[in-house]
Amino acid sequence: MQYFSGRFKEKASNLILDFHSTINFEERLAYYDIMGSIAHVRGLGKQGIVSNDEATLIEKTLREILEDIENKKIKLLVEYEDIHMNVEKNLIDRIGDIGKKLHTGRSRNDQTAVDLKLYLKDEIKKIQSYLIETIEILNNIAKENKKTFMPGFTHLQKAQPICFSHYVLGYIEMFKRDYKRLENAFNMMNVCPLGSAALAGTSYPLDMEYTSELLGFERPVWNSLDGVSDRDHVMELISALSIIMVHLSRFCEEIIIYCSNDFGYLEMSDAFSTGSSIMPQKKNPDAAELIRGKSGRVFGDLMGILTTMKGIPLAYNKDMQEDKEAVFDALDTVKSCFSVFNGMIKTMKPNKKRMLEACQSGFINATDVADYLTNKGMSFRDAYKIVGSIVSDCIDKDKSLEEMNLEEYKNFSDLFEEDIYNEINIENCVEKRTTKGGPAEKSISLHIEDVEKFLKKEIEILKNYKLNDIF
Ligand code: ARG
């Protein structure tokens, strides 16, 4: 039995039924589909389009159907194509003609748009919770490592000394922006398409404000064509998820580098590492590699949906059901990456000694020598040139800047005095950089305080957000 009987004389081929069915991957929408249907039928009852008794019976039966789907008592069938038709078929099987009234004044086109938005809104909150956990872990690391000095890099060449707190606080800022991007995506999609029907609204006197409010949206859509054909929210969300994956991937790339034998700045816990089948000494950062690798599939999901959407005329076209696998995959991937990432960063240990040792080579305090001369009256450009020659001399002599004696310094400029050694001491180099957002303890502490304020505020907001709940 196929739902679109009537106009058709021949039965649909099993090939097309399988090909266009979404039911095998959208069971997760069942809850939201029934939520949308309950709002719709309440609206129909309120407006006298169905009687109150009919509305009550439909709602009661829909709740029973949901329970049966959740308890796996209902088999969702490919021949009913999608979640909407499967639910409706079960409804009609149970209450007959009254069940046939549910679809009055609506289409699967507005149903699928509503279901997906309800689902995505909840998922956004879940990803935001992961981000909060990540930021909390990193902020704790930042609190403990204000004096863990390490090289900062540009071009992956040692550049200037920083501290480990400064490094992780950089990522905290990226994750805070990710959090806000999700917030924006949430707010942007918070508009209810129910009532758009197939594309042109409906002649039934629906109360769209009422159903929109019941479903927790800010307002109904302004245009029914847009209501059913807008998938901006899918593209926007996967874009935000892609940027999250870029951040996770960059961080993972650095974790991999910092865990390598030659760097040794970080020690990954055994629980998040893996061994080799042949090399007994190996401890590999597979988890970090896999997160880095999985960024590719999320970008793929984004490219897929962008490409699918770019040539679709208004309003609904079947192409658009490709939205679901893309966004489900992106969400599932990001959630699984976060759970592993958070466990991994919580248990990894900075090797303070190695990090400090690494600051002793590579002339990472060369800028400070130039600043020293500048502070004594020389122009920065002249100082820069002199220090370049000093570094070259150091290389020839296989010495560090700390190992040059005062006489050697004086060969380059009379301005050098004994206090140069204080200036190039690694801790002092870091502590001098007190600009806002810099690595000095003073700046770090201010930043940490600000992160704490952010966390306090957002945790409160998240706590008060109620995931979609069938009213
Ligand atoms: N399963 C469809 C989707 O996911 C629902 C809408 C179907 N509408 C239609 N006119 N065929 O997009």
Overall structural class, as computed from helix and strand content, comes to: mainly alpha
Give the overall form.
elongated
CATH topology of the largest domain: Fumarase C, Chain A, domain 2
Number of domains: 3
CATH superfamily of the largest domain: Fumarase/aspartase (Central domain)
Query: Compute the gyration radius: what is it?
Result: 30 Å
| Overall mean confidence score, pLDDT | 95
For the report, how would you describe the main beta sheet?
Answer: 2 strands, antiparallel
Outline the structure in words.
This protein folds into three domains: about 1-105, Orthogonal Bundle (Fumarase C, Chain B, domain 1); about 110-355 and about 450-465, Fumarase/aspartase (Central domain) (Fumarase C, Chain A, domain 2); about 365-425, Orthogonal Bundle (Ribonucleotide Reductase Protein R1, domain 1), CATH 1.10.40.30. The protein has 18 helices and six strands. The chain has helices spanning about 15-20, 30-45, 50-70, 85-95, 110-145, 165-190, 210-215, 225-230, 230-260, 285-310, 320-345, 350-360, 365-375, 380-395, 405-410, 420-425, 425-430, 440-465, and strands at about 150-155, 155-165, 190, 220, 265, 350. Helix 9 runs antiparallel to helix 10 (about 285-310) and helix 9 packs parallel to helix 11. It starts with 13 loop residues before the first helix and ends in a 7-residue tail after the last helix. The mean pLDDT is about 95. Bound molecules: arginine. Arginine (ARG) binds near residues 109, 112, 321 and 324. Arginine binds near residues 22 and 108.
